[in-house]
Amino acid sequence: MFGKELVVTIVRRDGRVETYRVAVNRDVGDGSGGDLITRWGFWLFYCFFAEATRTLNISISFRDLTGASRSQRCITNYPYIFFGSGCTDRALFIGFGSDSSPPSRDDYRLLGELVRVGASFSADESNYVITISGSWTPASDVTVCEVGLYIRVCDLGGVARYVLFDRSVLSPCRSVSAGETVVASYVFRF
Amino acid sequence: MFVIEDYINGERVGKVVKWSSVDSDLFTRSIVLLFYHVLIPIARTDSAVLIARDDTGVDRFFYIKANMGSGVYNLFNTYNCPVGVSIRLGSGSSPPSRDDYRLESEVYVITNPTVRYDIPEGFVVIEVNVFFTSDVTICEVGLSFRGTVAGATTCGEFLIDRTVFSPCRIIPAYASYRVRYRVQF
Fold this sequence. Notes:
The complex is a heterodimer. By secondary structure, chain A is mainly beta. Chain A has one domain. Helices cover 7% and strands 52% of the residues of chain A. Chain A contains 1 helix and 11 strands; from the N terminus they run ββαβββββββββ. Chain A has one helix at residues 36-49; strands at 2-11, 17-27, 58-63, 69-75, 91-97, 113-118, 120-124, 129-136, 142-154, 160-176, 181-189. In chain A, the strands form 3 sheets. Chain A has a 5-stranded antiparallel β-sheet with strand order 2-1-11-8-7, covered by helices on one side. A 4-stranded antiparallel β-sheet of chain A has the order 6-5-9-10, with no helix packed on it. Chain B has 1 helix and 11 strands; from the N terminus they run ββαβββββββββ. Chain B is globular. Chain B is mostly beta strands. Chain B has a 5-stranded antiparallel β-sheet. Chain B has a 4-stranded antiparallel β-sheet with strand order 6-5-9-10, with no helix packed on it. Chain B has a two-stranded antiparallel sheet with strand order 3-4. Chain B has one helix at 26-39, and strands spanning 2-8, 11-19, 48-53, 59-65, 84-90, 106-110, 114-118, 123-130, 136-150, 154-171, 177-184. Helix content of chain B is 8%, strand content 51%. Classes of the chains: A mainly beta, B mainly beta. The interface between A and B is large, with 64 and 65 residues.
C-alpha cells in the first residue's frame, strides 16, 4: 500500500477547526501492507525526507543477505550529496500561496507564494506513516489557494538548494483571517 | 503501485500487485526520479546524478550516489562498492514475511538488471531476461539492494522484497524468462 494525502486545517479565531483533505492518492493492493517491500518503501522515503541539522548523521538498521545485523548511515555529514547534511541543515518547508492555477509536474515553486515555513517531520515506524507538517498564522487576512512541499538539500557543488516536491491546489481557495492558523500536513502511508 | 510480473517466451504468466496506483503529478515525477537514481546499478567509484529545478528556476545537479571517499560512512558511497539493485530467483515457496532477509532457496542472481523510468506514466521498471539450459522451477523472486552497508568500505546486500508465485513457474530449457518489477506512483 502507498498513499499520499494532504490535510489542510484552519483554526478559526473562535476556536473552530476546519479540516480539508486534498490531493488524496491512496489505494490498496493485495492488502499486504507491512510486508518487506512496504517496510523498505517506508525507509527509503524516510531517507529521502529526513531532516538533519548540519553535520548530523542518520542511520537505518537492517539485516543483510548473510543474516548479519547492520546499521548504516543514509544521511551523512558530507556536503556534496542529496543525502548529505554537510552543506546545510537538511530541512523541509511548507509553502502557502494564493495562486489557483492547476498544478503541473513542471512546477518548481508556488506561483503566488505568500510564505514558506519550516516543517516538522515525523516517522511512525510501527504503522509505516511519515508526516510532514507546517503551520502559519498570518498577520493580515489572506486567501490560501496552493500548498507546496519544499526540501532543502546539498547539490553536487556543496550548495544548499530548495527543490519543490509537491504543489497542490485547494478548490475552492480558503480565506484565513489575521490571527487564525492554517496547518498543512502531508501524510505518506505505506 | 508495486507490481511483479513474469513472462515465459514473452507471454505473461502472472502478476502480483502489492501497492496500487497513485498519480502523475509533480510529486510523482520527483519520487520516480529519486527511486530511479537510487535503484539503478552504479559501478564502484561512479555516481548517479539527479537533475532537478530549484526554486529559482535553475536546473541543479544532485548526487544520489557518489564516490565520497574512504572516510564517509554512507549506504550510497561508491568509493569501494557498487550500489544498486539485483533480482534474485529461487525455488522456495514458503509464504513471504517482512522479516525475510534472503530467498528461501536461491537459484539465480542477476546483478545488473535493466532499470528505466517513464515520467508521464510515473513508473520505474526493474527488469531481467534470462534463460536456463535445463528446466527450472521458480517459486520466489527477490529484489535486493547492494551498497556500502557498514563504514565506508564494507560492501553488502540486503533484501527489499520477496514475492512468492503461486503456482510456481516451470521454465522450460532455453525459454526466455522475464521478471519485471514495476514501481508506480
